[in-house]
Amino acid sequence: MSKKVIVTGATGLLGRQVVRAFDEAGWTVTGTGLSRAKPPQILKVDLSNSDEVGKLLDDIEPSVLVHCAAEKSPDRCANDPDGTRKLNIDASRLLAEQTAARGILLIYISTDYVFDGSPGAAPYEADAETSPPNFYGETKRDGEKAVLENSDRAVVMRVPLLYGSGENHESAVNTLIDTIWNHAGKDKVDMDHWAIRYPTNTEDVARVLKDVAGKYTSTDISTLPRTLQFSSEDKCTKYVDALSPKGSLLKRTP
């Protein structure tokens, strides 16, 4: 019998690749979404609704739940702070409580925005003190706390700026393609050359998440770290990213 996994946010940039990685590894995968859900392929589930979450877990009986769903758009975070807290913190807490009650491993996708990126501070260790620079980072840090405090079978996976197959607007890296194609009709485009970034491909993150799920369901979780971080080793600025044909837009971690 194949192992079962639920992937929330399965219609998103990362979620789509996570579904694919687990499926190709022989897992039975159930994806969930909300506004872009297309049953029966992607189930429509309100992650803030305790009854819907409980029914999902009882119907599927997964051994792992990968929680990719989150509000990360700066505009939507600013315009709907209550809705952002509801998804990034409250829904994460609910999932932790519900999965813990059923002995299900919960993998919570977090972000390097839990750190402020002060000059000279990076690279950060997983146990480094967090200091989010913005509201989005604050909600993801609080989401980390919510899952770790409410489940002894929860693990946090922090990832950096992501890019991958999909619509360009889904990633701040992919949007550079539109910029260098100059769809705005400008003769000159300003691009910063000071902020160091580590763009990471969603296929690589999905592969690692699949490996983490296998490890944490076959080993005593109390002997394993509860907070993990994964990133490409390739660093660049926006200018390098857009200028070089060998930039991170085309690279994947070996």
From TrEMBL:
<dbReference type="InterPro" id="IPR036291">
    <property type="entry name" value="NAD(P)-bd_dom_sf"/>
</dbReference>
<dbReference type="Pfam" id="PF04321">
    <property type="entry name" value="RmlD_sub_bind"/>
</dbReference>
<protein>
    <recommendedName>
        <fullName>RmlD-like substrate binding domain-containing protein</fullName>
    </recommendedName>
</protein>
<dbReference type="GO" id="GO:0048269">
    <property type="term" value="C:methionine adenosyltransferase complex"/>
</dbReference>
<dbReference type="GO" id="GO:0006556">
    <property type="term" value="P:S-adenosylmethionine biosynthetic process"/>
</dbReference>
<dbReference type="InterPro" id="IPR005913">
    <property type="entry name" value="dTDP_dehydrorham_reduct"/>
</dbReference>
<feature type="domain" description="RmlD-like substrate binding">
    <location>
        <begin position="4"/>
        <end position="240"/>
    </location>
</feature>
<dbReference type="InterPro" id="IPR029903">
    <property type="entry name" value="RmlD-like-bd"/>
</dbReference>
<dbReference type="GO" id="GO:0048270">
    <property type="term" value="F:methionine adenosyltransferase regulator activity"/>
</dbReference>
